[in-house]
Amino acid sequence: MEKIIKLENIYPDLSKARSRGSKAIKYLNNLFELTSAQKKLGLKKTFFVRTYGCQANERDSETIKGILTAMGFVQSNDWKKANLVILNTCAIRQNAEDKAFGMLGALKALKRKNKDLVFGLCGCMPQQEKTIKEVGHFFKEINFIFGTHNIYELPAILENVYKYKKQVIRVYSHEGDVIENLPDYRENKHKALVNIMYGCDHFCSYCIVPYTRGTIRSRDSLAIIKEVLTLKKLGYKDITLLGQNVNSYGIDLGGKYRFVNLLEDVAKTGIKRIRFATSNPWNFDEEIIDVMAKYPNLMAYIHLPIQSGSEAILKKMNRGMKINTYLSLIKKIRKQIKNCTISTDLIVGFPNESDKDFKQTIKLYKKVKFDNAYTFIYSPRIGTPAASVVDKIDLKTKQKRLTKLNELVRKYSKWNNNKYIGKTLEVLVDGKSKTDTNTLTGYSHNWKVINFTGNAKPGDFVKVKITGSSLFSLNGKQVK
Ligand code: SAH
Ligand code: SF4
Ligand code: F3S
Asked: What is the pTM of this model?
């Protein structure tokens, strides 16, 4: 019988996460192997994974589900009935953390009734020391906590929890590695997320991600292409290439083969639809636009987070972006890619953002007329430089700014959507609409959500005539 490795607790350290470059990145292809005991640990047990945050977490949750399935666990769709519950958390803003804390409270209450319930926390929240203090000591019931770099250790963590009945905390605060060939599990049968790189080295002054996700590590391009080809063979129609900033792809590998090269090679696989997220404007390579214009399977959709229309604020944010450069980028995209949907992220109420600064954000928005924007009130993140600035702007002012900005977001979303009324668009069908089961929902080549009547199945491509528009979607009828 294989011996169970007893795991020591390892706690996070933000200062270690900040000091970079001391350790070479390892590319590990054969790290993951289950012992025969681990393969049986989950038999007769069900699991539930709740995911908060961005697509990086969504993809990690798929890996976690893959590991649990390989261990014999079966997925449950009801957290109240599952034997094992894992919360994959996000630390980007306080409200993301609050949601996870709320759920932890509910799990704690459930455990009083059901002593056998095992639950744990992973993702970006536990990469911060403060979370361990808030969670580990406060909620004694929590069985395990692991960080974004420790996912591969999950089988050993669960063995220690189930066999030794101990609370396990495993959070590395290092640069991270590239770990390939972890078990795969994909929830969706026609859309897939494909990681191309991990981590971020940009350290925008407000952002916790470089601390929670480690340094930039690009995957080997051949491994990426192989994954896309496998997905194509399995019938996948739409893939999203994922990275905190896809434009930095390859920099850590010498920089000869860049994101634009990868994008072209992925386009050549012939998979039907390809998009990418996130693409930061400050190092957006203009050749990407040429490649997007050349290959019809590259979706006409770009998410380009600007964060603020004020150059003074952008400087304080450490974004390194000039508004005019951004505007000329938008101009080039609009000129070369027909009907390209452009969206952005905006933060209001960055410390000491003046009325004048905010007006510049409004001005920029009116100028670009974005199809959509994700808007946020600045949330201080302990350990980031912006969080130590004394902020003279009160929350009420920030909320008013957000309301005003959101009015514009709605106005221009509708204004952009109206342009499609009367046109016929090709739609990749997601399935039945969540709010109306007589309606189908899907999205166009330029990432417009379309609710329509028809008889198509998930994963089908159909032509839909657009008959009307709502705030954030289009309505239509399938044409035979
Ligand atoms: N890597 C991506 C962003 C990932 S985080 C990029 O650089 O574009 C997603 C968005 O969350 C950011 O674009 C930003 O708008 C927002 N965000 C990040 N930190 C924040 C904070 N401390 N407060 C409020 N919003 C924040
Ligand atoms: Fe955060 Fe900036 Fe990195 Fe995006 S680029 S993840 S906003 S530090
Ligand atoms: Fe949140 Fe971590 Fe993503 S902080 S936004 S889940 S990288």
From this structure: 0.96
